[in-house]
Write a structure and sequence with these properties.
The protein is of the alpha+beta class. It is built from three helices and nine strands; from the N terminus they run H-H-E-E-H-E-E-E-E-E-E-E.
C-alpha cells in the first residue's frame, strides 16, 4: 500500500512537469507568431507609404495641359527639337561662289551669247592640224553656272583630230528633281563641233556618251 502511494506521487509529479513544459512551449509559439504578425504589418505600411510617395511624385510630373508625363514629355520635346535643328542645318547649304568670266570666254547669259565670233573661229579649226582651246560658260540662274573647257587635239601620225571637253560643275548646284545629265559626269571626247541652224544649236558631235550634244543655242545678236 505504501509503495502504491509512492508510485502515484511520482506519476503526479511527472505529469506536472509535462504540463509546465507544454505551457512554456505554447507561450513561445504565441510570442513568435505575434512578432511575425507585427513585422508583416510594419512591412505593409512601409510598402504602402512607398507606393503613395511614388504615386505622388508621378502625379507631380503630369502636365495638366497635355495629360502626359512632364519628364518624358520634356525628353521627347528635346529630341524633336534636336532632330529639327539637325535637319535645318543640313538644309542650309553653303552659297555658291560667284564666277566671274574672263573677257575672251564664250558666255551665255539671259539669252545673250557673248564672244560668238570666238566660238565660230574655234569651230572652224577644231580637229585640224593644230591645237586651240576655249571656255564656254552657261549661266543657269540660281543654280549657278556650267563651265566647259574645249581643247582641240590633233594626232599627226594618225592624221586625226578631236575635241576634248572638260565639264566643270564646281560653280553649279542641281535642283533636287533635276534629271542628271550624263554628259557632265566626266571628261568627254568628241569628233567635231557643228552649227545646226535647223534645230538652232551649236552641237558637239560623235562624243563618248552622245552622238550629238546641244552645247549652246544659236543667237543672232552678240551680247
Amino acid at each position: 500500500m505504501k509503495n502504491n502511494h509512492k508510485f502515484v506521487m511520482i506519476m503526479f509529479t511527472v505529469l506536472l512537469v509535462i504540463l509546465a513544459a507544454c505551457g512554456n512551449s505554447s507561450e513561445d509559439s504565441n510570442a513568435k507568431l505575434n512578432n511575425e504578425l507585427t513585422d508583416s504589418h510594419a512591412m505593409q505600411n512601409t510598402n504602402g507609404n512607398s507606393s503613395e510617395h511614388e504615386d505622388t511624385q508621378n502625379a507631380s510630373n503630369i502636365n495638366p495641359e497635355t495629360g502626359t508625363d512632364s519628364a518624358d514629355g520634356t525628353n521627347f520635346e528635346q529630341e524633336v527639337k534636336k532632330h529639327s535643328n539637325s535637319e535645318g542645318e543640313q538644309s542650309q547649304e553653303e552659297p555658291l561662289e560667284e564666277y566671274v568670266p574672263n573677257e575672251d570666254e564664250i558666255v551665255l547669259n539671259n539669252n545673250h551669247l557673248k564672244n560668238k565670233d570666238i566660238l565660230e573661229a574655234f569651230m572652224k579649226v577644231a580637229g585640224e592640224n593644230g591645237e586651240s582651246e576655249i571656255r564656254v560658260v552657261k549661266n543657269e540662274g540660281v543654280k549657278g553656272v556650267l563651265i566647259y573647257d574645249l581643247k582641240s587635239r590633233y594626232d599627226k601620225d594618225a592624221k586625226q583630230g578631236w575635241i576634248e571637253v572638260f565639264p566643270d560643275l564646281s560653280h553649279y548646284r542641281a535642283s533636287n528633281n533635276e534629271v542628271q545629265d550624263v554628259f557632265n559626269n566626266a571628261r568627254q571626247q568628241c569628233g567635231y563641233i557643228s552649227k545646226d541652224e535647223t534645230e538652232g544649236y551649236y552641237k558637239l558631235n560623235e562624243c563618248r556618251t552622245h552622238w550629238e550634244y546641244r552645247l549652246l543655242p544659236i543667237i543672232n545678236e552678240d551680247g
